[in-house]
Amino acid sequence: MRALLLKGPQKFGLENVAPPQPSQGEVIIDVEVTGLGGSEVAALQNPGLRPLPNIMGHGLCGVTTAGQRTAVFPLSGCGDCLYCNQGQPQLCNDWNLIGVQRPGGFAEQVSVPESALVHLPASLNWEQASFIEPFANAVNAWERAQPKPTDSVLIVGAGSLGLGLTAMARDQGYGSVFVSDLSPNRLEAASSLGACEVARTFGREFDIVFDTVGTEVARTECINRTKKNGQSVFLGFASQSLSVDFTRMIREQKTFIGSFVFSREQFAKAMELVQGCSSKWVRNVSFSEVEAELMAYANGDFESIKSVLRPQRSA
């Protein structure tokens, strides 16, 4: 089968590899769609903890050999620790993500635990399904922030994570949700999902600000736009560090919240939210186009709202 292998920083290779051999309790998926996101962009620059060569892609959906359309819940833990028992395997010391520690969806086929299969309703097309994984991240971030009905909310970035937060806000009945982004296409998508106002930037402060980008600029904007006694919530991975004025943070009693991955319940919630997504927001790419697409993101080209690999399609 064909698979796209990350071999090192900014080094991909499309190769014919042996099809996956499922272990006991695993099933083979013919991959139909795999999302390209911020973690893949970051890994292209710095593979980090990924074993090399690595088949990335954790936001994937496909069809089982029995013909079942399925989304894949990509996360697992040890199953016995405090965090696993709380339904937060992402905090387990032995957390494992398909597309990171084990082969993912940048291939024509992947072997996954049978327990990872989540039935994909016929009402969702493959393009809509590609939003499930990032929207699940957004559900987790929203629930960690626990906005009050009176809170004003700013979402920095209208990519998949930002759109997921926008959809979650509408679902929860919040009307005071603002979204900033540099891309007119993404701002238009945010408006269609219920943002009350969109702009490249805002000059006011908000009770809760979500950074979905992760660059130093975006994180700084997130902190600066957070009111005193407010919350800054961080989801993006574009940069590893940021110089923070902790004296100001302490005096203004700002709360910093990190948000990483999601629970099964949040994944299920995301499947409801993506019904509002348009297939027109998705750019389908072949294996040969993935690297250029990720490099475009890395270089600040965010005109594509969502890009996905379609492994079953020819270049």
Task: Jot down its keywords.
315 residues, alpha/beta, 26% strand, globular
Strand element count: 17
Seen as an oligomer or otherwise, the chain set is: single chain
| Percent range of helical residues | 25-40%
Helices and strands: which structural class?
A: alpha/beta
Instruction: Pick out the low-confidence regions.
Output: none
Q: How much of the sequence is in beta strands?
A: 25-35%
What is the end-to-end distance? 14 Å
Summed up, the helix count is 10
Based on CA atoms alone, the radius of gyration comes out at: 19 Å
Q: What characteristic shape results from the CA principal axes?
A: globular
Please describe the biggest sheet, giving its number of strands, its sense, and whether it closes into a barrel.
7 strands, mixed
- The whole-number mean of residue pLDDT values reads 95
**SSE order:** EEEHEEEHEEEHHEHEHEEHEHEHEHE
Record the SSE blueprint.
Blueprint: E1 2-8, E2 11-16, E3 26-36, H1 38-45, E4 60-64, E5 69-72, E6 75-76, H2 82-85, E7 96-97, E8 109-113, E9 117-119, H3 126-129, H4 132-145, E10 153-156, H5 160-171, E11 177-180, H6 184-192, E12 197-199, E13 206-211, H7 216-224, E14 226-234, H8 246-251, E15 255-258, H9 264-273, E16 282-285, H10 290-298, E17 306-309
Structure explained in plain terms:
The two termini are 14 Å apart. The protein is an alpha/beta fold and 315 residues long. The chain has helices spanning 38-45, 82-85, 126-129, 132-145, 160-171, 184-192, 216-224, 246-251, 264-273, 290-298, and strands at residues 2-8, 11-16, 26-36, 60-64, 69-72, 75-76, 96-97, 109-113, 117-119, 153-156, 177-180, 197-199, 206-211, 226-234, 255-258, 282-285, 306-309. It has ten helices and 17 strands. The mean pLDDT is 95. Strand 13 (206-211), helix 7 (216-224) and strand 14 (226-234) form a beta-alpha-beta unit. The longest helix has 14 residues, at 132-145.
